[in-house]
Amino acid sequence: MSTDRPVLVINAGSSSLKYQLVRPGSGASLATGLVERIGLDGGRVTHAAHGQEHATPVDVPDHHRAFEVLRAQFAEYGPDLAQEPPVAVGHRVVHGGSRFASTVLIDDEVLEALRRLVPLAPLHNPGNIAGIEVAREAFPDLPQVAIFDTAFHQTMPPAAYTYAVPRAWREEHGVRRYGFHGTSHDYVARRTAALLGRPAEEVAVVVLHLGNGASATAVLDGRSVDTTMGLTPLEGLVMGTRGGDLDPGVGGHLARVAGVGIEDFDRALSKESGLLGLTGSSDFREVMARRAAGDPDATLAFDVVVHRLVRYLGALALVMGRLDAVTFTAGIGENNAELRSAVLSRAGLLGIRLDESANGAADGEARISTVDSPVAAFVVPTNEEWEIARQAAALLEG
Ligand code: AMP
């Protein structure tokens, strides 16, 4: 990278605005912030820069005001955006459909395409779009770049992304698998290749992104060839409030026997299932604490989470036909050695030999397989903001 001017990375949701000023070359984070409760009572902003954090109550009726708040935080606590202007604003966008297979410079036409994609991600894309619209006003002189959670998975072959459903659903309504967390899977797979000391284009990795949302991806020679999430981020693994895979017949069954309507069904699947549905808590730490105390619901939840992971780990390895490494990332994957151990101790068939003490001691990037393990296992902290900054800067450099 010829220059390392920072990128302002924006992750705008319907009621929050997360931001970070990142140098794309080194990954150095110059400031992070979060504007919370946009459009709600009790708004507040937290801004961290120069090693200090400042939390301030603010009134944030809309995204427009949220960007004013952001600018004011930089003006007051730094770094000074005028002194070293960002090279771009990089926006995280959840759903890019089949239209966006890579990072793009945002113009009116791209924004219009994003609006047409809202039906595919009604919970996420509207907040992302609001962030883009307002950022264009707030920073009219800066290029605005969209980085999609789905784009990395556009390399999946039709065999992996096609649902066996009626033609009209597929052709008229975009019903297919898209996959999510692409920025994280891409970053973690490349870090894994670096830890193996090999080019990313030559390694086969299963990345397990296990946070509040969770997905597993088969990354073969640097490209996603299969992933566990589908049309929406509901498919696949067990998550904080999402249950992952489910017999498609459950919806019809509940409609007939209990009169459950589509809105209630959707809400239950995205907000009331997963760890929350099984234990009453969506927080993995709390589930682990309860399991340690002998709680049967928490014990079952852990077993269901592990079972689903083992099943997909085996499936994704076989999809690739070879395997060099399995890598854990995100809140749970980076921090919970017990879960990693439960999964990998059942992966001997794949050639993985877990090093229990390395696993227990892992902090930051770490190898957790034995030195003679035929297939390696790693922990790699994800860094989506750096990856977004890197991709935005790379696009501008052509
Ligand atoms: P994320 O969405 O990546 O922020 O991950 C959130 C999830 O990570 C929550 O379920 C947390 O309980 C879990 N998590 C965060 N820190 C830890 C930890 N030290 N041990 C276990 N789980 C953790």
Q: Number of helical segments?
A: 15
CATH homologous superfamily heading of the largest domain: ATPase, nucleotide binding domain
Whole-angstrom Rg: 21 Å
Structural class: alpha/beta
Give the topology string: H per helix, E per strand. EEEEEHEEHHEHHHEEEHHHHHEHHHEEH
Percentage of residues assigned to helices: 25-40%
The biggest sheet amounts to: 8 strands, mixed
Counting DSSP E segments of at least 2 residues, the number of strands comes to 14
Strand content: 15-25%
Tally the structural domains.
2
Widest β-sheet, arrangement of strands: 5-4-3-2-1-6-8-7
What is the end-to-end distance? 11 Å
The third-level CATH topology of the largest domain is Nucleotidyltransferase, domain 5
Tell me which CATH architecture of the largest domain applies here: 2-Layer Sandwich
Mean pLDDT: 97
GO cellular component, one term: cytoplasm
Main location: cytoplasm
Pfam families: Acetate_kinase (PF00871)
Binding site for substrate: 92
